[in-house]
Amino acid sequence: MVFVEPPEDWEEETRLVHGGEYRDSETGSIVTPIFVSAIYKYPEGNPYGYKYARNSSPTIEALERKAAAVERAAEAVAFSSGMAAISSAAMALLKPGSKLVTTKDIYGTSYEFFTTFLRSYGIEVDERGVGEGVLERIDKNTDVVFVETISNPLLIVPPVDEIAKACEEVGAKLIVDNTFATPINFLPLKVGAYGVVHSASKYLAGHNDVLGGIFATNDKKFALNLKNVRRMLGGIPDPQQAYFIIRGLKTLHVRVAYQNEAALRIAKFLRDHPKVERVYYPCLEEHPSYPVAKRLLKGCGGVVSFEVRGNGFDAIKVMKKVKVVQRTASLGGVESIITHPATMTHHTVPPEVRKELGIKDNLLRLSVGLENVEDLEADLDQALSSI
């Protein structure tokens, strides 16, 4: 049994295709197989060998090796969902009395987990900073800082490099949710982050057909501890899940390159549309995060948010009128998806917090897929013309 260990000089595209793959000399297979066995012959003398599928399996290990290679990390740990990765890492790093600094403008379930679940266990959670405002919230009592590379849904890009430096100065650990940016557009560990988390259900897998999560880090000791936490909490993906994510990762660079370009074009189209009030996309010069995005990111990803001219009912009407674009609450796949954050992804965020952040009822979030851009523009135009 041999896993492909990518040389340092391999570039991202080659790492995505070959890195971490399981290669079997007996069969000559070049595709990692799905090991469905729940149990394994007990590995005498090797406490880290395969024993039980809740611990690991060759398919899971191949996914972890590939994810680590792509994020330029020493280790990666695979999970059954992005939230399993976030919650498991948080519980491994924090204890009663610990302090977590995060932001209000993150994924709604992440916000809910931090501000309700963690607080109920005596963990101090400071979520008052947004974007570069996080810097002023970090102090000597801070244990963990959690930010998103590109926030959800207003696409704020925090100065991750500066936040990493501030964390280093006080001994805090920076965890970056890199789901929206992907490792194609940004590598948080390269600028000093302690860990990187992904909802692999989104861009990494890329086809809206599987759930999964990834945590990557250069701290091998913590990665081992996190695998033990996963063993106890049961958040490991099954082999079929892992296989789909492995397969999706092989085309990540091609998909993200197209989505970067298509999303920028659609952002400009929406900016000029008479039925659109405001567009949020970090690669537009008028976006408040444009200077940071230009400095840190290779591309701004495939998500564009925009406010329609009207109220929440008008936004929902537009969402219901699209034909090519699909109405649901996810992103990062080959199909373009439209979402109403106030009633979907951020409905668990208190209304006063949504108002403070600027998540208005007339806001829509668009995840650009791989369809023809002109078809998407025509679809959005006919939907917007209905209000």
From TrEMBL:
Enzyme class: transferase
Presence of the UniProt keyword Isomerase in the record: no
The protein's name in its UniProt record: Cystathionine gamma-synthase
Entries under Pfam families matching the protein: Cys_Met_Meta_PP
Alphabetical UniProt keywords: Lyase, Pyridoxal phosphate, Transferase
GO molecular-function terms, A-Z: cystathionine gamma-synthase activity; cysteine-S-conjugate beta-lyase activity; pyridoxal phosphate binding
Cofactor entry: pyridoxal 5'-phosphate
GO CC list: cytoplasm
Organism: Ignicoccus hospitalis (strain KIN4/I / DSM 18386 / JCM 14125)
Record-level GO BP terms: methionine biosynthetic process; transsulfuration
Its EC number(s): 2.5.1.48
Transferase found in the keyword field: yes
InterPro entries for this protein: Cys/Met-Metab_PyrdxlP-dep_enz (IPR000277), PyrdxlP-dep_Trfase (IPR015424), PyrdxlP-dep_Trfase_major (IPR015421), PyrdxlP-dep_Trfase_small (IPR015422)
Superkingdom classification of source: Archaea
